[in-house]
Amino acid sequence: MEQEVIAAVGYKTPGRDNLKEWAATKVTQALVDAATQDGLRYHRQETTHGVRSFYRPFASTGLLGFTTRASPSDISATVIDTHKAIQKISTANLEGAKARATVAFYNEEFETNKEYVDFLGTSLTGNTTNFTGTDAVTEAISKVSAADVKKVVDGMMAQKPVLYATGDLLEFPSIRQLGL
């Protein structure tokens, strides 16, 4: 069996407290997907094969990032190339990203009864009984602008990301050594 390294890189992002920022981060994740899964693969950068994005929002903060799997000799290039792709996110297909973000929202929050109950339980706004419903979320996603996405990406790049890796790590560099 060939040796491999599995790595996850996460960037601090807005959480669910602010609907506009949450929606912008959902759209940014869709653009990250497009950049890493579609864009880089078609530009023959084999180092990004197997990259998947994730976004885990909590109340006031979230974590948007990517996971990847590669051989020990390729993992550094994979992480660096994906980080660079996120830095250069294009909003040329913003409308497509909004559609993807809306579908992802419904898929992640309503696919099963448990997910729907979780959405209901986390949809109260602050310390009030104000409820954030699906219409408000989809409307917020539809109003995301290129400037909103830029703000999310700038915020992600303003701090060092976190890195978790497992596998054959004898030659795997640190975040500092990777230049992230």
Please summarize what this structure is.
With about 180 residues, this protein is of the alpha+beta class.
Describe the fold and architecture:
With 180 residues, the chain is an alpha+beta fold. Helix content is 49%, strand content 18%. It has a four-stranded antiparallel beta sheet, with helices on one face. A hairpin with a 3-residue loop joins strand 2 (52-57) and strand 3. Residues 39-44 have low confidence and may be disordered.
Mean pLDDT: 82
Radius of gyration of CA atoms, rounded to a whole number? 17 Å
Task: Note poorly predicted spans.
Answer: 39-44
Structural class call reads alpha+beta
Strand order of the largest sheet: 2-3-1-4
Give the helix proportion (percent range): 40-55%
Strand content: 15-25%
Distance between the termini: 30 Å
- Tell me, what's the shape? globular
Number of helices: 7
Q: How is the biggest beta sheet arranged?
A: 4 strands, antiparallel
Q: Could you state the order of secondary-structure elements as H and E?
A: EHEEHHHHHEH
Q: Could you give the count of β-strands?
A: 4
